[in-house]
Amino acid sequence: MDKKITIQDVAELAGVSKSTVSRYLNHGYISPEKTERVRAAISETGFKTNFFAKRLKTKRSQLIGVVLPRMDSVSVGKLLAGLSRALEPAGYQGIMLVSQLSVEKELMSIRSLIQQGVDGIIVDSVAITEEHLQIVEGAGIPIVFTGQQHPGLDCVKIDDYAAGRMMGAYLRQLGHRLAVFAGVTETDAAVGGDRRRGFQDAFLEAEDARVDFLQTGFGFLAAYNRAADILKLQPTVVACATDNISLGLLRYFHEMHIKVPEEISVTGFGGYDVGAVVYPALTSVFFDYELVGMKAASRLLRRLEGADEELDMEIPLFFIDRESVRAL
Amino acid sequence: MDKKITIQDVAELAGVSKSTVSRYLNHGYISPEKTERVRAAISETGFKTNFFAKRLKTKRSQLIGVVLPRMDSVSVGKLLAGLSRALEPAGYQGIMLVSQLSVEKELMSIRSLIQQGVDGIIVDSVAITEEHLQIVEGAGIPIVFTGQQHPGLDCVKIDDYAAGRMMGAYLRQLGHRLAVFAGVTETDAAVGGDRRRGFQDAFLEAEDARVDFLQTGFGFLAAYNRAADILKLQPTVVACATDNISLGLLRYFHEMHIKVPEEISVTGFGGYDVGAVVYPALTSVFFDYELVGMKAASRLLRRLEGADEELDMEIPLFFIDRESVRAL
DNA sequence: CTGTTAGCGCATTCAG
DNA sequence: CTGAATGCGCTAACAG
Questions:
Q1: Do residues B69 and B215 share a domain?
Q2: How many folded domains does chain B comprise?
Q3: B37 shares its domain with B89
Q4: For strand C, which residues in window 18-47 of chain B come within 7 Å by CB?
Q5: Alpha helix (H) ranges present in A208-315?
Q6: Residue B3: pLDDT band with limits 50, 70, 90
Q7: pLDDT digits 0-9 by tens, B183-234
């Protein structure tokens, strides 16, 4: 294994100076003849420009840090797809860290990324804290958030409140009056807060309507375990804060021989394929996370270029009417 | 934003030399008094050691590159969990790239990682080609593979052939004689090759048994679309190469009012929670990908330390008997 | 225990 | 268009 080939070695082999090789590698203002000699020398030696030396010099890494809450989620996958679709053409590469839904780990990841010299960061956040603000302030690089929102921060996000309203209004119009909202902790201001509030506000526009809240986690196992408690409340519909939660419930209901939607309706949020594969197929609100990813990346790119105009960060929502809800 | 604080600035503020600060940051063989002064100076300036300069000097990045085939997969999530569980305590951090199931992208990712100076790489490969061998040879850093196997390469992998056999034998013993194996391309030597072959070999140990092969993709949508073709073969059981494939089929059968397992049995491979949430719950073979991740990381760590002994890379398999198969 | 001295490999002035 | 010279910020001998 041919160890360390430096730009120097290439220069000598090509009979030119280091600077010429460097120019070849970058702007490339050199004579055709030398261009060829350098090219040959490089391919012969298998030279690879040293990443660290280059970055030390240029102060730019062409690296974008990406902090994700988890890996086993369709939406995260979509988000990522959107991100790389925008980042790659611009010559940037993403390096990702996973926070495992922990605010602490998220913070650590952001710090670590900054320290590692990435040019910018995209955080699919689980919750934005005071510390986030401080870090962003002292970061020296642009950071854009997704998943959560906070005044003063650059955020690209679906309108959780509107999504909640969409579902709430739909169920109300179908005649439902007694709902349980199976949600997550309020710590998650977007999903645990806005989405739920939107749902309640719209659903409760019917005079005699009522929404009970039951907290669970993001996994469907947690939801499955809460199902019995939900049933005690005897709702006509249980609106779940995420598709995953719905899946856990659906499974429980199936095991208990409770027919969905005949005996109880169930809805989710997210609208991905898994919801289509279960029985009954899940009625949900579709979030285009791929679009979110693209917009977040575009936003970051824009800031990297120095521009700072606000651009349209609107993400459309689509209602997906499938089989898990019945009209009363 | 306080611009660039270097180790020099800290040294001056603390009234010591750069080396002393550097020592404080690293081995730390300095007097208590100066230790304190340096500590103070650092926290006052908010100094952060420059990653690139440090790496340029030390030649080690403490970074492990991780190449993943996709994000939206439970097994990948588990694998990742296992990886970081082993990597983090050792002071390493993972940077991941996604190949999107493309061999080309996988190759590119590996190259890019090497070029970026990671200390080692773990590749959850979709297929190992000649080019992989070449890259590994010239990499200059340890690379361990997962998901696929190849002589001469460091691989940590479940025994796909054994898993296939396990399922094949099970179905045979239950009296099934006509199976369709819904698999993936042979390009994937592990899943498309070994797993299928194992299944066939075990299933065909019954004299009058027969296995038809039908190719599909990794997504359940692809499987869903192949379902009609599978039915034409009139099998008593369809063994799917992955749980995901099973899900697509289950959905189709449900829509066609074909009862599983009464009219047709379905099995998967993977054994994760999703399989438990669908109806009927999926009979499968469980792969402990988290263990795979841990072992792969341990292996890499070992090689990073220079050791090169073979260690036990055995990954146990567990049969998960649920509801989607009936005895004939 | 500590300061001084050298580079790590590269991009970039600055003169030709 | 090209080569020589100069650090980027840091760590690691090397002498104290």
A1: no
A2: 3
A3: no
A4: 18-20, 23, 29-31, 33-34
A5: 220-232, 243-255, 274-277, 289-304
A6: low
A7: 999 999 999 999 999 999 999 999 999 999 999 998 888 999 999 999 999 9
pLDDT at A1: 43
How many residues can be counted in chain A? Answer: 328
Q: How far is the CA of B44 from the C1' of D10 (A)?
A: 20
Burial code (b: 16+ CB inside 10 Å, e: under 16) for B242-269 equals bbbbbbbbbbbbbeeeeebbeebbbbbb
Q: Helices marked H in chain B — which ranges?
A: 7-14, 18-25, 32-45, 51-58, 74-87, 103-115, 130-139, 160-173, 196-203, 220-232, 243-255, 274-277, 289-304
pTM of the model as a whole:
0.87
What residue ranges of chain A have pLDDT lower than 50? 1-2
Q: Which of the residues B54, B72, B134 would you substitute to probe the A interface, choosing the one with the greatest number of A C-beta atoms within 10 Å?
A: B72
- Together in a domain, B170 and B218: yes
Q: Does one domain contain both A224 and A137?
A: no
pLDDT tens figures, A38-77: 999 998 888 888 989 999 998 888 899 999 998 878 888 8
Chain B residue whose CA is closest to A109: B93
pLDDT of residue B107: 96
Q: Which of residues 8-27 of B touch strand D (CB under 7 A)?
A: 8, 18-19, 22, 25-27
- A322 domain-assigned: no
DSSP string covering B17-56, please? -HHHHHHHHTT----HHHHHHHHHHHHHHT----HHHHHH
Say how many C-beta atoms besides its own lie within 10 A of residue B187's C-beta: 12
Q: Which domain holds residue A209?
A: 160-286
- Are residues B74 and B31 located together in one domain of the fold? no
- Residue A294, domain CATH: 3.40.50.2300
Shared domain check, B268 and B168: yes
Strand B265-267 with B237-240, pairing: parallel
**Cβ of A29 near strand D (distance < 7 A):** yes
B2, part of any domain: no
Between CA A145 and CA A163 the distance in angstroms is: 19
Distance from CA of B84 to the nearest CA of A (A): 10
Residues of A in contact with B225 (CB under 8 A): none
The answer on A117 and A225 residing in a single domain is no
